Amino acid sequence: MDRSRITIFDTTLRDGEQSPGCSMSVPEKLRLAQQLDRLGVDVIEAGFPIASDGDFEAVQSIAASVRRPIIAGLARACKPDIDRAWQALQGAAHPRIHVFLATSDIHLKYKLRISREQCLEQAREAVRHAKSLCADIQFSPEDATRTDIPFLCQVVEAVIAAGATTVNIPDTVGYSMPEEYGQLIRTLREKVAGIENVIISTHCHNDLGLAVANSLAGVQNGARQVECTINGIGERAGNASLEEVVMAMRVRADRYPYETGLASEQLYPTSQTLAEITRVPVQPNKAITGRNAFAHEAGIHQDGMLKNPLTYEIMTPQSVGVPDSRLVLGKHSGRHALAMRCEQLGYKFERRELDEIYRRFIVLADRIKRVQDSHLLELIRDFAGSGFAAPKFPPAAAAIPPLARAASAVAAGHESYTGHLPSPNHALRANVFGEHHEQEDYLWGV
Ligand SMILES: [Zn+2]
């Protein structure tokens, strides 16, 4: 086994779908699963088959048509759940049954009303039964991070002996701290007999904003599978965000020398597909996939970006599938960015002319938050009519609306991204920035 290869287990369709407002129909789940396949995830948790007929059908149809990744179905630690999951996974090329049972005292006492001994026996029996059906078995001790550690070790040892091949350690309530979670993974590796024969997995929730940090701490301490979701959706504050985990390891390979099988340029298209299906927009400042993640407004940043993108960018937008970084024209913008945008609109100015344009631009930007192409064109027209020399080369393609031209330019350079969309314009309007009025606030390629 390659010690540096990290298995990416996507649970957008199971844990992610548990987010309020994120439920998906069977065809929508299938569409997302196909996109996850293009992204290159290793495991797709397609649903919880006993939970509903819709979940069963989704797992069944994904198992039948998405053939490369492992397809997992979730089951509580009891025979009816496991049998139902196995039934849904029948058509899968690579099926996995994922069995879970809570192990913390608070869950045992108040939720399950069973003793530790009963819990241990139930976990062992459930895994044994699942193993009689399927070779690939994952077990999760729910609420592991609030479980008594010696008891957790006992349960993990028992399920490995019963045939589990992956042991997933959930921070179900998002309570753990990075050093603490890393230490827990390390302790399991030191104390549990047979642990070297299985994959240890992380499953971290984001209630304190630490899901990604905790997952990475798990990896540094020997976990080799990370469970995560697109855009970090999931119960309450969500799960570890897949795109953040993957890019943290890629950008900081010096500190995290681990590999995944992901095609990172599919991250943004996958994020957009999910947002479009669930109609839950991505927060603008979301790392990697938010619409502002590669936008630069401050003048000094824009100037630096235009001279060399490495001044303010630790990864290129293209590397995660974002069509281009965006320089937003506002009152913090500098002359350099303004000149560039004017040129893209077809106007080139002398230094003195640009000074005047810039002065007028700042007055305007003070009044309206973001200066759009139409405002800029109006400003240039006023300027030309005020006695200054005429523009050096009026736009040849003046009849084409600026946004349409920007969109064509984007599409031309990024065919793989826009390939699945009806038209470049549609890409801009419906998929890149969400609402039409929002995207018009942004200027492309400045
Ligand atoms: Zn979860």
Q: What does this protein look like?
A:
This protein has 446 residues and is of the alpha/beta class. It folds into two domains: 7-278, TIM Barrel; 295-439, no CATH class. The protein has 18 helices and ten strands. The protein has helices spanning 26-39, 53-65, 79-88, 105-112, 116-133, 149-161, 178-191, 211-220, 242-251, 267-278, 299-307, 335-344, 351-367, 373-384, 402-413, 415-418, 424-432, 436-439; strands at residues 7-10, 43-47, 70-76, 95-102, 137-142, 166-171, 199-204, 225-228, 295-296, 326-327. Strands 1-2-3-4-5-6-7-8 form an eight-stranded parallel beta barrel, surrounded by seven helices. Helix 8 packs across helix 9 (242-251). It is elongated and about 90 Å long. It binds zinc ion. The site of zinc ion (ZN) has 8 residues, from loops.
Question: Briefly, what is this?
Answer:
This protein is of the alpha/beta class and 446 residues long. The chain has 18 helices and 10 strands.
Bound molecules: zinc ion
Radius of gyration: 26 Å
CATH architecture of the largest domain: Alpha-Beta Barrel
Q: What is the CATH T-level topology of the largest domain? A: TIM Barrel
Oligomer: single chain
* Tally of separate helices: 18
CATH superfamily of the largest domain: Aldolase class I
